[in-house]
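Sat 14:20. Reprocessing the chain from the morning session after the first attempt stalled halfway. Input below, unchanged.
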Amino acid sequence: MSARLKLTLSYAVIVVVSGGLLLAAVGLFLLRYVPDTVDFFPNRGDLSRAFVPVASMVMLVLLAFGLGAGWLLAGRMLAPLDRIGDAARLAAQGSLSHRVALAGRRDEFRDLADVFDSMLEQLEAHVAEQQRFAANASHELRTPLAISQTLLEVAEADPDRDVDALIARLREVNTRAIELTEALLLLSRADRRTFPREIVDLSLLAEGAVEALLPLADRRGVAVEVGGAPAPVLGSAALLPQLVTNLVLNAIVHNLSSGGAVAVRTHAMPEAVALVVENTGEVLPAHLVATLVEPFQRGAERTRGDDHAGAGLGLAIVDRITQAHGGTLVLTPRPDGGLIVTVWLPHPYPAAVPA
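Finished this time. Tokens:
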């Protein structure tokens, strides 16, 4: 039986049972005070014969009324569920733009419809993001393959080809493809959120990342400063170092051509820890900063060098790793140029840090 039919029968049973109890009570108390004697008119039998047919007719009327009114009332009450069901069927067919948009006073059905609309909105945004990501990833992966094919075709047609130069160029293109593939795998791993967790100190990771990237910073003329308080978090010992390294690397690469600076700091708050990476650079418009966490968004207006082409996945990976650890990534453009990136992560021991 459908839910509407079940509600209808429930309403009808309630009405009939209530009417039956009411008539039984009336009949019982009415006949109670009538003596069952032949010399009294009317007697109890006469009243019973007069009362029972009328009561039966009333019960039939109550049954019909209960079924009819129950059917209408159940249909009216279940109408929001029908609209939610229609939206769910459209979503199952691939149409995620439809919304229930239930009007009226706020009740359980309105709350359910609003939650369903919010879920559809998030699904639509996620699917659109995945489609853009797949298209961009296909394009990025196709580029090194096309370059390799072109190099081989040119070398095959040139009898005086330089084999050493060809091998060096192919190695460079192949390295680029491997780095991109590893970045895509890392991004997928962060999205799955299936990784072992342990206590990791962000301050130690920051010092290690700065030490490893210091030669690159010296080569580009960027001064790097690192410091701050111990910042323990409960997370992945493989993903969190990648998060810190990506931030420091981006800060060094996307900097001034000379005389740039990078500051890496860690902070411990009562409920969360923060990793702040601040770098100098060109002035960034607000609309550009808002899109830097999207995959393959390289920030074309930011200064970049030939020694690090990048795949546009650095901040996207940072954002996914942050979300996988229950944190928040905040990008703030500096008024004088450059960017301030703050990663907020939950503190594993909230009570141990004074306010």
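Residues 88 and 116 are 9 Å apart (CA to CA).
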